[in-house]
From TrEMBL:
This protein's name: Uncharacterized protein
Top-rank taxon, per record: Bacteria
GO MF annotations, alphabetized: nucleic acid binding
UniProt-listed InterPro entries: tRNA_endonuc-like_dom_sf
Lineage: Bacteria, Bacillati, Actinomycetota, Actinomycetes, Mycobacteriales
Length: 339
């Protein structure tokens, strides 16, 4: 990248901001170049390249380098430790400030609006899950290559502390320009660690601590992601909404009465997507995530704000989405077996 004379923040960072799916298809950008750190002994000059948030509610610390750097993992670990203290309120403030500075909207995003945006983005399946995951950010290192000491350290860390996830993503630049119209560059991203095939075939002793930690991390993926990845619900399938076991009778009666006023309000269908797989008859062209749609229904019905796992209020063939997500992969026709 240095040979191409591209700046770390002005190009590489911009590519990831515009296309976060190259790092994680379920991630949104929260802020960039964040440096608002302070303690009782004074402020810090640390500057975090990119902070993201995955749909599972996991903070994602992204450290960018233009060349091979022997200390890239140490810097990223420092940033992860710093953001581990974030609350949802602090995260919302950071996102609102970044959004307003970058996009300069006619009406600035408020901290409250930013908080609602983050809450709707995260498909938490347990109350309070956001705080738990914030304390254990995922670390992603992005560079054109990684020195052997960095890869050795990252692999060792994954073994002795399996709760800490560190990924190494290597990027490459390809000049596809023709003529004298200036450079026309294509960038590619490739995750080189962890390598799934290596983890599958490698033989090593497993301690109970490592096994349990890996099982817990695998369960962090939201139900909608697991359903989509395993094709557990066929496209176009009817989805039912029933919050009766999650809120008080008064709220249920309010929401149900509002839904009954218009048949379209009860029309929910499944349209496979990693984050927003629901379609609603009232706004059929718009995609919804379970949390965002639940909030919309309660708000329009005039019911008190809901505070429960939305995936437990949407049902497919009599089972709520959190249960469906535990099934084995579908055979392609939507039929599957429960794990």
């Amino acid at each position: 990248m240095e040979e191409q004379k591209f700046g770390e923040t002005s190009h590489l960072e911009e590519w990831i901001i515009k296309h976060p799916e190259v790092i994680d298809p379920t991630m949104m950008i929260v802020t960039t170049q964040f440096d608002n750190w302070a303690s009782e002994v004074g402020p810090s000059l640390e500057r975090l390249d990119i902070l993201g948030l995955s749909a599972s509610g996991e903070l994602v610390v992204i450290e960018l380098k233009r060349g091979k750097d022997k200390t890239v993992h140490l810097q990223a670990l420092t940033y992860a430790a710093l953001v581990a203290s974030f609350t949802l309120e602090v995260l919302a403030q950071a996102h609102a400030a970044w959004y307003n500075k970058r996009f300069q909207p006619a009406e600035e995003m408020t901290d409250a609006q930013a908080k609602e945006k983050l809450e709707n983005f995260v498909e938490a399946e347990d109350e309070g899950k956001e705080e738990l995951v914030f304390a254990l950010p995922r670390i992603i290192l992005v560079a054109p290559g990684f020195p052997a000491p960095v890869l050795t350290t990252v692999q060792w860390l994954s073994e002795v502390s399996p709760d800490v996830t560190v990924e190494c993503h290597q990027y490459g630049l390809f000049d596809v320009s023709s003529g004298n119209n200036g450079p026309d560059v294509v960038v590619s991203f490739n995750r080189i660690f962890p390598v799934e095939d290596m983890e599958r075939i490698r033989l090593r002793a497993q301690s109970p601590r490592v096994s349990v930690a890996k099982e817990q991390r695998s369960r962090q993926a939201p139900a909608v992601i697991r359903i989509a990845e395993k094709n557990l619900i066929p496209a176009g399938s009817r989805i039912d909404f029933d919050p009766s076991t999650r809120v008080n009778k008064e709220s249920v009666a309010t929401v149900q009465a509002w839904l009954d006023e218009d048949p379209n309000r009860r029309e929910f269908t499944w349209d496979p997507h990693l984050r927003e797989p629901l379609r609603w008859g009232v706004e059929p062209d718009k995609r919804w995530g379970p949390t965002a749609l639940r909030n919309e229904l309660f708000e329009r019905a005039g019911a008190p704000e809901a505070n429960f796992a939305a995936t437990e209020a949407f049902f497919f063939e009599g089972e709520h989405l959190a249960v469906v997500a535990g099934r084995e992969a579908s055979d392609g026709n939507g039929s599957s077996e429960v794990v």
